[in-house]
Design brief:
single chain, 0% strand, 43% helix, mainly alpha, extended
Length: 134
């Protein structure tokens, strides 16, 4: 117990939480701000999307975890999309993986291909967590 973790100790406060607090303080003072923060929808989802979501949630086959590489049908659909959109050929079994989002995917990729002591170039701008993930 009491073990220290260097990477955790280097983590800064979550920038979006800090920005949200700053926006709340500004609004409380009556200031008119233009919010360029994380986007959230300002209108309802289309009804056909909601109906499909309800349909999927009611299907018992969706009541479990996905495979670690992602659902095979989704990976195949991504291959077709990349071919159609970018004229790129991919192998759904060897070259496509589904992640929870781009932050997770990029962080996992960088962690997988780098080792302690390696120099890693992180673009700027980037997600706030990326410079601290190595």
């Amino acid at each position: 117990m009491g073990q220290e973790f260097e990477r955790i100790d280097r983590l800064p406060p979550y920038v979006f939480s800090e920005v949200n607090e700053m926006k709340a303080r500004a609004r409380a003072k009556g200031l008119d701000i233009i919010d360029f923060g994380m986007g959230n929808p300002d209108s309802a989802s289309p009804s056909h999307v909601v109906e499909k979501l309800i349909e999927a949630v009611q299907d018992p086959r969706t009541h479990r975890y996905s495979t670690s590489r992602g659902i095979k049908g989704l990976r195949r659909a991504l291959v077709r999309y990349y071919k159609r959109r970018f004229d790129v050929d991919l192998d759904a079994e060897e070259e496509v993986i589904v992640t929870l989002g781009s932050k997770e995917g990029l962080a996992n990729l960088a962690s997988a291909i780098s080792a302690p002591g390696d120099n890693v170039l992180v673009p700027n701008p980037s997600y706030p967590i990326h410079p601290y993930g190595f």
